[in-house]
Request: fold
Amino acid sequence: MGKFLCVLRSWLLMVSVIAAGNTLQCFRDYSFVSEKLYTASPGLVNGLQARTFGVWTLLSSVVRCLCALDIRNQTLYYITLFTFVVALAHFLSEVFIYHTAALTMGIMAPLMVASFSILGMLIGLQYLEVEAQSQNKKKN
Reply:
């Protein structure tokens, strides 16, 4: 496995662990969501919304961890990539369409993580294709 894919696996695992921590915060105290993410409309955040956000975050965490463990699984790879696309779209829409979030560090962090992850995973696709082609040549 190439060095880039090893770094990508480490990145996905790190993001997964951080997401698991955020999940715990969502279930422990919903003010985390209103104070860090939806700062433009904190009154709209309640316990149910925070727990729903926590469940989504937990699901994303599990998918990303599984991809880090089995990065050559193409279906899992694309699902993981899609979790970052959905996260990016969600946070951008909350800032620019619904105006429930402001561009604070609480929003900038997930925007940057999602953006860097999308970029890294798209680059990783090229490495996976090259790796698959070289394995096919060895078989022939």
User: Anything to note?
Assistant: The longest helix spans residues 105-139. The radius of gyration is 17 Å. Helices lie at 3-28, 31-36, 47-69, 74-96, 105-139.
